[in-house]
Amino acid sequence: MPRVILSLSVGLVCLLILQLPIYRWFDEKIISRRESPPRSEFGLVPIQLLPGFDDSGAFKGPYGLDIIFVHGLGSNPDTTWLGKTDASDIDWITSLLPHDLQPNLLPDTRLFHYNYDSYWFRDALEVRLEDLSSKLLIDIYSMNRNVPETAHRRTVFIAYSYGGLVVKQALIQAKREAKFSLVADSVSGIIFLGTPHNGTDLSRVAWFAAMSLRIFGSNPYILDGLQHGSQLVQSMHLNFMHYYQGKITAVNFFEERKTRLLKMGFIQWEEYVVRKDSATYEAQDIVNIGLAVDHKGLNKFSSRSSIYRQIVSQLNQFIKADFDAHRGSCFKTIPKFQAPEYVNRPKISKLIENEIQIFNALDSTAHCLILSGLGGCGKTQLALKYIESHGNNYSHIFWVDASSTSAVMRSYRTFAEEIGLQEDQLRDSSEIGPTVIIEIVTKWLEGLIGFQSHWLMVIDELDDLNVEPSNLIPRGKRGTVLITSRRNFRASTINRYLPKSCKAVQVDSLEQEEAVELLVSVSSHSRKTAPQHILEAASEIAQLLHYHPLALGLSYASASQIALMESPEQSLSLYLQDLKNHRETMLGDPQYAVLTSYEKTVQTAWDTSLSAIESQNINSTKLLALLSYFHHEEIPFDFFRFASAKFHSNSQPFNAMYKELPPWCQDLLSQTPDGNWDSFQFRRIMQPLISYSMVQTFPSPVGTAFRIHGLVQWRARQMSDGVRTLLSSIYIMSAAAAVIEKGTLNRHMRYLTPHLQQLNKTKHVEQNSLEETEFFQYHSMTSYITGLIFHHEGLLDEAQAAYIEAGMVHLHNVVSSNRNGSYGPGFFSTVLSVANAKQDKGNWTSSEQMLNFSLTTLGFLLPDNEAKRNQLEFLFHLAINYRLQGRLEKAEQTLHQVYHETLELYGNDNKKLVPVLEQMAYLHIEQGKWQDGQDPFQQMGESMLDHRINRDGAGIVLKTNKINLLNRQRRFSEAEELTKTTLVESIEIFGEMHEISWDLKAHLADVYAATRQCSDAVPLMEAVMSFRQNFYGKDSSKVLMSATNLGAAYGLCGQKTKGIKQLKKTIKAAYEHVSDDHPLVLRAKGHLAEIFREQGDWKRAEKIQLQIVNQSIHSLGKEHPETLRRMAALGMIYSAQKQPEQAEKYITMAMDNGLRSFKENSELYSHLIDILIVGDSQRSKAGGALQRLIPLAAIQLQEHGPSDEKTLDTSARIAAIYLERDDFKSAEPILLQIEKHGLEYLGEGHRLTLFATEAIATIYRLQRRWESAYLRFRYLTSVYLKQHGEEDGRTLRVMADAGWTAFKMNAWDDAAYLLETTLEIKSRMKRYKKPDTLVMLDLGAVYKMQGRSQEAFDMLMEVVHAAMVSHDKNARNHADSAIFYLRSIMKEMGKEEELRLLENYLPDEQTRESQLKEYIALTKKRDGVVDDLEMESLSDVVFRVLQAMQDADGATTSLARNP
Predict the structure, then answer these.
(1) Which of the 8 DSSP states describes residue 503?
(2) How far is C-alpha 486 from the chain's CA centre?
(3) Which of 191, 391, 469, 882 is most buried by its number of CB atoms within 10 A?
(4) Kindly report the CA angle at 245 between 242 and 247, in degrees rounded to 5?
(5) pTM surpassing 0.90?
(6) Exposure string for 936-948, b = 16+ CB within 10 A, e = fewer
(7) To which H or E segment does residue 158 belong?
(8) For residue 610, which of 546, 508, 717, 689 has the smallest C-alpha distance?
(9) Residue 329: pLDDT band by 50, 70, 90 thresholds?
């Protein structure tokens, strides 16, 4: 017995010892309620919403809704409702839910947590379900039901899991005790989230765990009766159904996935926490919804998932049903209806909806919005649309007609009668004053409570009132006020009387799609189904009416009437014809007004506003009439500032024009004593126009600007005094143009041009009337200034017409006996301008004829001194003409003459000589005279570069030409240094954001691009383009030029896809403003073709280059240097595609048409040599090319030295021909010299350096000089990787060659790495659709030499398989070589049977003997011995060389190795 007791004692001690670690583990892991209480207080806790939502007001009303969230067992509000994200946890109740509840009801809604202590693991309270539910009931009763002010609020519960049982038990108790009856009756609905109405199978496990943790102070009693099917839960449910069935609505959400309770390695335990049969029950007004989540997914949301949306949808249904049940009677007084011609305007309707929902807690009215805009723009219809869409959200809708005081009184009386105010309250307002009835109604609205307080008041046409608007608007945190007004909300005094937080939405014209949709409906079509002719007619009508809703409504009604008499399909076309022929009648005849709900015409729609404006300042309507002759968009205030400056300058003609202006207009443009524009009168006159929305102001890149609706201009022009107002408009705009044209205000020109075009058009219409005025003496000057602006903006046809008009008027004034002279330029100045316009357009011959004609007549018509000055001017422009035609010798002779005669006439005046030197710099660039000190003109230009640039920008152009000169000489470091120095000077003088500084930044970006400094070039080009878009506008020629350069830079820097996209976008944008033969378009297309060439996409390159050539022939002529260059490029593309006939065609065209300028232009000569090489190679006449190249190289060597780029370029061409003839002895020394001088003077990345290095490496490889070849191929690989990236064809080509030479050196690991990398890169590139069998063959051979037999076998078999499915001859040759390697590999691997089958694929003996003879014959031509498994064909080398010189890709050319 003692032994037994001892054994038991020992066992007990061991058991305690074993339990000790378990105890310690539980002690560390299980949280104590005492040590870690929840952050939330216990009981009913208000939930604080996010900023912007009404928290405080929600607790004040006796009506509204309380939503109470009840958590589950062992949890608390701090964690129950949190959704997990990677960044943080989200409380969806505060973060998501307030945005998703019905916004008009949110201010009346309160949110609460019920936090009860259900923690049962450790240091738990010994409470049961009945204790927790009693506390919930008491808290609700104490907070609401015992306080009369909140006695009528409704309640919705959202209860999770065990929390649902707490809610049910609390409501059962509320029914059993009379004092809690109001709590029971207030419940509108319950959302149960996984509530175990019939218990849960896991309760036993939980109870056992609680009992096991009793040592830690757990509470198992809270789990009593939770077993599935227990008497407690069944009895509770029966009682709940007895009291509440059919009285409240409930939704049961249940889990459809099991919850993972335990996972240990491969062992895991999953179970339903609450099964469907327990989480649901069937009864009246009960909805059961399954969700594809586990138990924990029913209450935790980090986003608006479908699960979350289903729960919120049910909650909103509860809220709406409760609102509808308790809202009471709804009163509406809406005297107007949606017009039949109304078209849906989704964009502005959405804006109104968003703005009106903004809650303003600090203001007297919570929601206030004003729709302001021009009369007839659809404000009232938008208000009606808002009521149609959102009217059900409001308890009462009150429409106030504010067009007059009497209309306001009628509106308030109507509403008072509607809501049933007593008769004694509605006594005659004349007895007690008009404000009494307003006060009665507003007080009634302010006194509404609960859901009844959600009223909407629409105050329509609040323009001018004797009654203050503030008296019309009730106070109230639930009310919404929507106002329509023609008055500009910010610019008028109306905002003084409105709530401070009142938002404003500007209502403008319809969108194009909306206008077209309205009009096509006349023909019973929609915009998507209408035929093209109907769409075109609708678009044109909408454009003519400037998309104005009233005008479009009239057109809709008129076209509908036409459709009753004619075919509906033709109604819009007929209306368009009527509108063009009878515009005044169609827009002004009252007969058409009755067809619309607005009952006004376009002519009468603004009469009220115009009368009010005139009563404030009579000059305001005069200014509106003056502005009606301008273009309706973008009129900068600066135009009037510039005009004022010009009118008060020492310019006699503009002084005279100023005196012709009416007095009010002179005051508008007066100046202060210190000589600045006095804008006081301008602002004073503009204010009423802005206030009544006749004019809208907005910020623009050139300062504040304003716009006028096109139909307002039409209406205002009817108020003008005709030609006198037109004259004032012309004078003001011409004065502004004169300032802009002479200064550095280039970005203003874009805004000026449309106004000059509009005035020009009107001037020609009113020409007969203008001739009867004093305008004729200013006509020549205004036309000439207009021409200068058009010319600057590239509108060459319009510029030419304006110049001609100026010249003809001048001649008329000179010869007319009744006109003794006029202000304006001389006849020859206009002739020179016309010649320049023709020249810029490419009409070289016509321009040259005009210049020569003027030179012969100047001496007869002008005094000697004046004739001499004009002759120099004409000679100078004639020299430019010769240069642009490519007649460089003639241009140089003429410039010499101009230079010497300028010195003789003016002396050594740099200002006069600067343009001559600039043109000489351009000429030297094109002649190839790039060496310093070669010409005295250039020496003088160099000396001028030592001076800093002046304030007026003098010297900038000269320095820019020097930068271009350095770039052409490939002296990039000097070009970069000069550009940076000049940029620093420009920033110091003009500022960093000045256009001159940005032009220099553009030049610097070009230098970066030329030197492949891509990380600097691309961002700087992007910044330049962004600046120019903001400064000049997106349509400017400078922007298009920047876009073209950026696209080219993308291509140069390896971002070819991005470059193609950018260039296509640029070409499309250019087509909208210039012709398809414009230099900008051709330049962009040229860069696009170049990128396609680099990609090896010859077909697309050919298509684009052919377009360029044809357009160049059409616009420039066959003999122009640019045309010849473009022919050369096209010939090379055809050569690369092995199309000798097409190549020969364009070679011949270039040769035949380039003979005249052949010897004058050394750069052109170089291009023609390129063409000759290609042509000779196509016809196997390499000797002919050598006969031309060797003498040229000798001359260049003597004149420029061995390191000059042109010398090296010609030497490279000679070496290429030797390579084609396999004359490696002759080619190698030439290539070594090119490589040496290229590395020293041109840089390692220069095309000639790279060409020479690769050609030498190829020769060494063929001569088995493996180490020298390998070193160069590895060097080339690193350079190409840095310049072009790993996916460039050149990189992959030299990488593969480096791998092969490494193999021949027995450097197996290096060879395997290079070849594997090549294949891996090609495998992920879409353009390599076929496997590269040559590289695969080389890699298989490497694997064999490394002893990796299985990998070698797999790789070589892939080569054989690729050849079987391909008809490519090279692939078949590679497969033959692969089989030779496979013989030994398969013998080693014991695959004799497979080897016999494979050898059937080999060529027969006769074929192999023929191949061997060819191979031996080839090796005899070479120096050195080549490998017996290698044969190189160089018949195509010359084409690859020429492509490489043009920076072509060359990826498709490979040097095949045959067995």
Answers:
(1) E
(2) 34
(3) 191
(4) 125
(5) no
(6) ebbebbeebeeee
(7) strand 154-160
(8) 689
(9) low
